[in-house]
Write a structure and sequence with these properties.
Length: 68
């Protein structure tokens, strides 16, 4: 799923502690930053989201599985 990044989304993801990036996913392999399912995960990494600017796409992974 894609949505457009904007200031409201950025504020709300912080306020509500949104967990949707690879670092929050049970399939994340922290040793090398990859995905256990071998999905290309560059756009799902937290650092990528943190670098997004107004109008760019936020890309949610269809296979996210909460690690909590
Ligand atoms: S399943 Fe998706 S969110 Fe989870 S580690 Fe792989 S690419 Fe990232």
């Amino acid at each position: 799923m894609r949505m457009t990044f904007d200031q409201r989304f950025d504020e709300e993801r912080t306020r509500y502690g949104l967990r949707a990036c690879c670092e929050d996913c049970a399939q994340f392999v922290p040793e090398d930053g990859s995905c256990a399912h071998r999905f290309p995960n560059r756009e799902h990494r937290r650092a990528w989201w943190d670098a997004l600017r107004e109008g760019q796409d936020v890309v949610f992974c269809k296979d996210f599985e909460s690690a909590a």
